[in-house]
C-alpha cells in the first residue's frame, strides 16, 4: 500500500528530481546486512537456503540458541528479515538471541535475499514475479517451516509475523490446514487479513490500485523497488537529503501509508531504515491487497471471471477459509494503526477459531511500524512477546 503512495509521488517528482540531491554519509547500520548486524550486536548468524516446491530459493537466517522450541520471524510487505534486527541491541532478533532463543528469520520470494529461482531469472522472466501474499503463505512459509523443523528435529515451532508476514500465516493455515499443528504459537503483530476500514490516504491509494496496476502492466514493470533500480535510487537521493529528507520521506511519504509514531521512530534512525527499506516486491502483491480492500473480502487472487472459472470453478475467487486456520494465535494490535485497523482485526478475531490472546497496545499512538522499529519496544512490546513465548513453549 505504502508503495502505491511512493509510486504516485515518484511519478510526480521524478521530473523535478535531479543530481542536486547529495546523499549524506550513511550510518554503518544502514549498510550492514542481517548477518553483519547480528555479528555487530553479539551473535554469529548462519545463512541457509530453502528451496520451495515451485523452485524459489529463499535465504533463511539463523542465530543459534539453546531454548526450545525455535522461534521464526517473518517480515512484512516490501521488507526483509533485516526489519527485526535494525534496532540493534533494542531489536527483537537480538533480544530473543540474548535470552537464549533459537532464532530463525525468513525472507519471502522476491526480496533482495530471496531473488533467486532454480530455473527462472528474475531479471528476464516476468513469471518470476507472478506471486502475491498467497504464494508467500502456501509455498514460502510452508517450506521455511519444514526446513526449520527438520534442521532442529522439533515437531513444532513458534512464530512471529508482522503485517504481510501475518497474512502469510492466515493463508497457510486456511489453505493447507495440515500445517496448523506445526505452529505451537503464532504471534501476529499488526495483523492484516481484511482491509475494509481503511481511511485516507491509504484508502485513496488503494482505490487507485487497479489503475496503477494497468500503468505498470503497460510499462511491463513486474518488480517494484528493485535494490539497484531507478525508484530505489530516486528514493535514496530524495530521502537522504539533509534538511528535507525526514520531513518529505518519513513523514510525508514512506510512513503516510504504513503509519508511524514520530516519538517512537526518531529522525536520527531514519537513514538506517532507508538502507533496508523498501525492498523489492511484485506488482501482483500490491494488486492482491488492493483487491482485498476494494472487495472487502479476504479472498484468493481475482483473475477476472473467465480465468476465475478455470482456476476456482467460480466467477469470483473464493474466500480464504479462516475457520480452518486452527493454529494458536495471539493478535497484537495498535490503536493508531491505520493499515491494520482495529475494526478489521476484530472481524478477523471473530473468524479465527483458536485465538489465545487479543492484545490492544496500551500506548494510544502505537502504529503499524512501531512493532518493528519503535524505540521503546524493549519496554513496551518485548516483555509481552517473551511471556507469550514462555507460556506456550
Ligand atoms: C552479508 O554481508 C557479508 C559481508 O559483506 C557477505 O559476505 C554476505 O554474503 C552477505 N549475506 C547476504 C545474505 O547477503
Ligand atoms: C533434513 O535434515 C538433515 C540433516 O539434519 C539433512 O541431511 C536433510 O537433507 C534435511 N532434509 C530436508 C528435506 O531439508
Ligand atoms: C490515523 O487515523 C486517525 C483518524 O482516524 C488520525 O487521527 C491519525 O492521525 C492517523 N494516524 C496516522 C499515523 O496517520
Describe this protein with a few key phrases:
393 residues; alpha/beta; 8-stranded mixed β-sheet; two-stranded antiparallel ribbon; 17 helices; 10 strands; globular; binds 2-acetamido-2-deoxy-beta-D-glucopyranose
Task: Describe this structure as you would to a colleague.
Strands 1-2-4-3-5-6-9-10 form an eight-stranded mixed beta sheet, sandwiched between helices. The protein has a two-stranded antiparallel ribbon with strand order 7-8. Helix 1 (2-13) runs antiparallel to helix 10 (245-258) and helix 5 (133-152) crosses helix 6. Helix content is 40%, strand content 14%. It has helices at 2-13, 28-31, 34-40, 92-98, 133-152, 164-175, 202-207, 209-218, 230-239, 245-258, 270-274, 283-295, 305-312, 342-351, 370-373, 377-380, 382-391; strands spanning 45-51, 57-63, 67-74, 101-105, 157-162, 183-189, 223-224, 281-282, 329-333, 355-360. The chain has 393 residues and is of the alpha/beta class. It binds 2-acetamido-2-deoxy-beta-D-glucopyranose (NAG) (3 copies). Residues 199, 259, 336, 338, 367 line the site of one 2-acetamido-2-deoxy-beta-D-glucopyranose.
